[in-house]
Each structure stands twice: as structure tokens, then as C-alpha cells.
Design a protein that fits this description.
This protein has 16 helices and ten strands. By secondary structure, it is α/β, with parallel strands linked by helices. Helix 8 crosses helix 9 and helix 10 packs across helix 11. The longest helix has 20 residues.
Length: 381
């Protein structure tokens, strides 16, 4: 948008903070920036507003915009279908068009009187990586003859601190089993998000390796962890993956890579989430033996559990290894998951455009903005 000529009044990266204490500490600055943004809206009176995700701020903005007579288009729905369903009335009252990226969201909103359209997920129309396995191996110093496993612990430091240690223990356990025959040892690809400093990740890995050496003195060869800069290429070339719940699971779905979903939060947060999550009829979801509803987007899109979810107490190295191993060989489990991923992937592809090719979700949102502008433009004298 900035490249297209939008003036940046407030930068989202300057006001985005994770965690209660972080938000409280920065609250005066955040609120000052919010007032600055509202003042610019009142001054400029835009012809249309495009709100993207970020419900904590955008619901407040939507109310202000509606009072000023500015039509509101919202792209990437907040997950009202999972929790905080009461916020639906704010969408009904203040949002003119809701453009959603998951197929069940459109049915959810339409059944509740919201003008909603499924435009497809932007990740679904990206071409597959073109770099060959040999080129990728040469670029990152990998052995193309070995199996590669991708580890995606998250894109935020707190997520990584919670998820990475167990993932590294998975790598150590997998390689310990083949310690007598290092030719069978896997290598591990760890994509580093742009929000994370690679040196910090290396320090975390080094700390873990020291702990492994103390506990397993006979394990002479540490698993090879290779930091890479692109998650999609890592998923494309990996034999299988361990993926933290979030957008990365959608990336794995678009690639078609077999994977295991993991995540760890505090026991209190997990208990509260378990009580709060309630899916509507548009999302067929059944609890597991512990009463946990699925949370991985790939399982919600599929309408059934097609990838295993190991959350909190279930997220142990032993459980991940036991679930991951069958995905590495040509097993029925691997074939079944690949087929199920392909079926789910087809569900969230955007509808074909008039050309017969998949439509571009971003282009469709841009067209909807133009439609709103034309519908609300004052009539020519």
C-alpha cells in the first residue's frame, strides 16, 4: 500500500507489542499514535477504509469510521467464529464488506447477516519454490542424500522460547536412535522469521546442545540444525515437518508437506482457551479424548483431524518422534496425510476467475474496494 501511494500516518510495527506487561508499559505511546491516526481520518475523510485483521485496534477504528460516514471493508477476519463471538455485533453494525480467507468464514458471516465473500488465501496462489534440491543443498551446506526435517517454532521470541527446546530434543532423539549409523541421521532446517535475530537462535541451539551433552554423554554427534531464511522452501524440500500452530501450518498445507502441529502456552492460558473456544455449526469439529477441540487451521479447513496436534502436556519429544517417524518412510500414514492435505488445499483455493485460472485474492479485495468507492461516490451534478 505504501508503494502504491498510501501515506503512512502510523506504522503498525511501532505499536505492536506482545504480552500484557509490554502493552501496559507502552500504552501511552500506543494511545497517542491511535489518536494521531483518528485525527488524520477526521481531517482527510477517506472515501473508503480497508481494515486488515488486528481486531483490538480495528474495531475501535470501525466505529469511528462509521460515524464519519466512511464505508468499511475488512480483509482477513478476526477469529470470531472461535471465541469472543459477542464482537459479531460490531461487525454487523460497522463493517460494510467482510473479505475472508477461509471458506467456512463466509458461510458463518452470511448466516448472521454480514455481507461476506470468500476470496481465497493469499498463500494458496503462490507458486511452489523452483530451487532444486541440489541447489538448495549447495546453498545451505546440506547433504542431499539425507532426509531433511523442517522445524518451525514460530515467528515471535516468546513462541520460540516455548517451542524450540522440545523441537531440538526431537532432533536429538531422532539422531540418537541412529547414532551407530550416522549415514541415516537426519538434517534439520530451521527457518528464521524476519522478526527474529539469527544470532539469538544460534545461542538458543548452543545452550540446548550443552544440556544434551550433559544428559547424553554417549551422543557424540549433535543433530545438524541449519538456519534458513525461507519457510516455504524449507517445507518444500523437507521430508516432513514439526510446525508450531499458526500461519506456518497454512504454509505447510499449501506446500503439501506432511507435518505435526505443536504448541505450548502456560497451563492457565491453555485452560482458559479450552473453555472459551466454541465453534459454530459451519465448522465441524469434535473434541479429542481429553476434550480438546482442534486448533490447527488445516484441521478446521478439512473439517476433520488430518494432522496430529500435540499441545502443551502432549507436546513432548517422545510424542513428536512417535508421530513423526511414520511420515518419513513410504507408509500408509504418509500417503494418507498427503492425500488429505491435497483435498484440504483445494477447499481454500480462490474460485477461478473468468480466465479459468485461480483468482488473485488481493486483486479481488482491490476490486471490492473500487466497488465500494463507486457505490458511495456522490452523484455527478
Amino acid at each position: 500500500m505504501a508503494d502504491a501511494g498510501q501515506e503512512r500516518i502510523v506504522r503498525a510495527e511501532d505499536v505492536a507489542h506482545m504480552g500484557f506487561t509490554e502493552v501496559v508499559r507502552h500504552a501511552p505511546y500506543i494511545y497517542a499514535q491511535y489518536r494521531k491516526l483518528v485525527a488524520s481520518i477526521q481531517r482527510e475523510r477517506p472515501g473508503v477504509a480497508i481494515l486488515i485483521d488486528f481486531p483490538e485496534v480495528n474495531f475501535r477504528l470501525a466505529r469511528k469510521l462509521k460515524r464519519l460516514g466512511v464505508p468499511v471493508l475488512w480483509f482477513v477476519s478476526p477469529q470470531l467464529w472461535a471465541w469472543k463471538r459477542k464482537r459479531l455485533r460490531l461487525v454487523q453494525r460497522y463493517v460494510d464488506r467482510m473479505m475472508v480467507i477461509f471458506p467456512f468464514e463466509a458461510a458463518f458471516y452470511r448466516a448472521r447477516g454480514v455481507d461476506a465473500e470468500f476470496v481465497g488465501h493469499p498463500l494458496a496462489v503462490l507458486p511452489l519454490p523452483t530451487i532444486s534440491r541440489e541447489e538448495y543443498a549447495a546453498k545451505h551446506g546440506l547433504d542431499p542424500a539425507k532426509q531433511w526435517i523442517a522445524l518451525l517454532p514460530g515467528s515471535r521470541q516468546k513462541e520460540i522460547e516455548a517451542n524450540l527446546p522440545a523441537m531440538l530434543q526431537v532432533a536429538a532423539t531422532m539422531n540418537l536412535d541412529v547414532n551407530l549409523d550416522q549415514k541415516k541421521a537426519c538434517q534439520y532446517l530451521l527457518p528464521v522469521a524476519s522478526t527474529i535475530v539469527p544470532a539469538w537462535i544460534r545461542d538458543e541451539i548452543a545452550t540446548h546442545e550443552s544440556a544434551v551433552d550433559e544428559k547424553l554423554p554417549g551422543f557424540a554427534v549433535q543433530p545438524r540444525i541449519v538456519l534458513v531464511d525461507d519457510a516455504r522452501s524449507a517445507l518444500f524440500h523437507a521430508r516432513a515437518s514439526v510446525v508450531a500452530s499458526g500461519t506456518a501450518t497454512v504454509q505447510a498445507l499449501t506446500i503439501g508437506n506432511p507435518f505435526v502441529v505443536v504448541y505450548r502456552v502456560s497451563a492457565l492460558t491453555f485452560a482458559l482457551a479450552k473453555r472459551m473456544i466454541r465453534y459454530p455449526a459451519e465448522i465441524p469439529a469434535t473434541p479429542d479424548a481429553d476434550g480438546n477441540l482442534p486448533v490447527a487451521m488445516v484441521n478446521l479447513i478439512a473439517g476433520k483431524r488430518i494432522v496430529p496436534e500435540l499441545l502443551n502436556s502432549r507436546f513432548t519429544a517422545a510424542n513428536v518422534v512417535a508421530t513423526l517417524r511414520p511420515l518419513l518412510d513410504e507408509t500408509p500414514e504418509r500417503a494418507q496425510m498427503i492425500a488429505a492435505l491435497a483435498e484440504a488445499r483445494a477447499k481454500f483455493q480462490p474460485a477461478p476467475a473468468q480466465t479459468g485460472q485461480p483468482a488473485d485474492p488481493i486483486r479481488r479485495v482491490a476490486d471490492a474496494v473500487i466497488e465500494l468507492l463507486r457505490a458511495t461516490a456522490p452523484a455527478a451534478p
